[in-house]
Each structure stands twice: as structure tokens, then as C-alpha cells.
Amino acid sequence: MKAMILAAGLGKRMRPLTNHVPKPLLLIAGKPLIEYHIERLVAAGIQDIVINHAYLGEQIEQCLGDGSRWGANISYSREGEPLETGGGIYRALPLLGDQPFLVVNSDVWSDYPLQQLLLRQGAGSMKLVHLVLTPNPEHNPEGDFILLPSEHVVEQGEGQDKGQGLTFTGLSLLHPNLFNGCEPGSFPLRGLLVEAMQAGQVSGECYRGQWVDVGTPQRLLELDKQVRVEGACSDL
């Protein structure tokens, strides 16, 4: 399986930290956030990684190179201008191949066991989309989607009385056929997800382990402190 790390955002909510550094290179316990994703992907057996970038993207390439020091093979999808999530993934499809691929936002943190997604892809019954969802954090109390007991995911309002409103973690498994009929350019992923939900082609799961949307300077600082404490404890 191949993976794509989404790293093309402008990082507006992180300013002034991102005035001169792209958000994926902000440090957690002295190491760029995106490096943790690469390490976890390789540990799960995924070596072929595509990273898209736009804002200050040359810094990402200079920092990560070809990925060989992690045992990875990194390819870059250079956007020039951000294409939103849907447009960015669509542009990178030639690098991702014709099989389902894992997608992870560069600005999240989680201990979700990535091997579970490899097992789902290998099961042979995968839908167009599989989403990893999580209980709603304080900053997203309404959630994003509804997870039904059947593992189907639907829009907010659909099946509201039968399922659970949850937050999308930014971690998913996508089949390239999800993008059939799309055209080059900037467009969000959500529209495609909703269409697939209406066709019954989106499954999901609720992960109750560690997950952080590292979207603000305050949450970055809190995560940095947490990882430093955990690292210090593991050295005892």
C-alpha cells in the first residue's frame, strides 16, 4: 500500500509560527511533526509515501529528501498553489497508483494502529472510502459525520437518531475510483465523501485512543509538553 501525507496547507491558524516555516515542519519535542508520520508509516510496513506541498514546500523537500534515512521512498506532488484536499489528492493520483491508499493529514497526531488499515484493504470488501473517526473534541462538539452500527458513515442529519456523531481524524483509506469524473483544479474532499456516503460507499470506525488536531499554537504547545514528558518517562 502507498500513503499520502497532506502537507500543502497555508497554516493560517498557526501564525505567526508559520510565517517562515510550513506547518508540517513545526517541532514536537525537537522533531518536525511530519517526521512522526513518516516513522509510523514505515513501522506499519508502508514505505512508498507521497507528500503534496505548496506553501514553502521547498523547505519540506530539503528537510525530508527522498526519505531513505527512514527506509521510505518519498515522492512529492508540487502544487504551486494549494488545491484543497480533494484537488491535491487528485493531482497526486498518478503517483499513488490504482489501488486503495492511506491518507493522513500532516497536522494531526494519533497513536492509531495503522496496520488495521492495511488489513481492511487486504480484506477485499473495501468500499470507496474508509474513515477513522473519533469522539468529538471540545473544538468540534457537533462532529463531522454519523457512524451507524453497521459501520456505514452518513452525513450529519442522516441517521442522526440511529448513529453517533463523530469527528473525522484526518486519517482515511481511499480508493482512486472515488475521483472518477473529477477535473484538475482546486476542490474540497468533503463533496466527494458526501456523494460516496449517499451511494453507501463509505465505511468507518470510531477510534478512542490518542488523537490531537494540532491546528493552533496552543495545541502545538500542549502536545510538545506531552511528548516530552512521555519521552522522559520512557527513558527511566
Q: Examine the coordinates and then state which fold CATH places here, giving the name of the CATH topology.
A: Spore Coat Polysaccharide Biosynthesis Protein SpsA, Chain A
Return residue spans where pLDDT drops below 50 for at least 5 consecutive residues.
none
Q: Could you name the CATH homologous superfamily?
A: Spore Coat Polysaccharide Biosynthesis Protein SpsA, Chain A
Per DSSP, what share of the residues sits in E-state strands of 2 or more residues?
25-35%
Gyration radius over CA: 17 Å
Question: Structural class, judged by helices and strands?
Answer: alpha/beta
Report the order of strands and helices.
EEEHEHEHEEHEEEEHEEH
Query: What is the β-strand count?
Result: 13
Number of domains: 1
Measured distance between first and last alpha carbons:
36 Å
Largest sheet: 9 strands, mixed
Number of discrete helical segments: 6
What does this protein structure show overall?
This protein has six helices and 13 strands. Strands 1, 4, 5, 6, 8, 9, 10, 11 and 12 form a nine-stranded mixed beta sheet that branches. It has a two-stranded antiparallel sheet with strand order 2-3. By secondary structure, the chain is α/β, with parallel strands linked by helices. The protein is globular and about 45 Å long. It has one domain (3-234): Spore Coat Polysaccharide Biosynthesis Protein SpsA, Chain A, CATH 3.90.550. The chain has helices spanning 33-43, 57-64, 84-96, 115-122, 190-198, 217-234; strands at 3-6, 27-28, 31-32, 48-53, 73-78, 101-105, 108-110, 129-134, 145-147, 153-155, 164-174, 202-206, 211-213. The N and C termini lie far apart (36 Å).
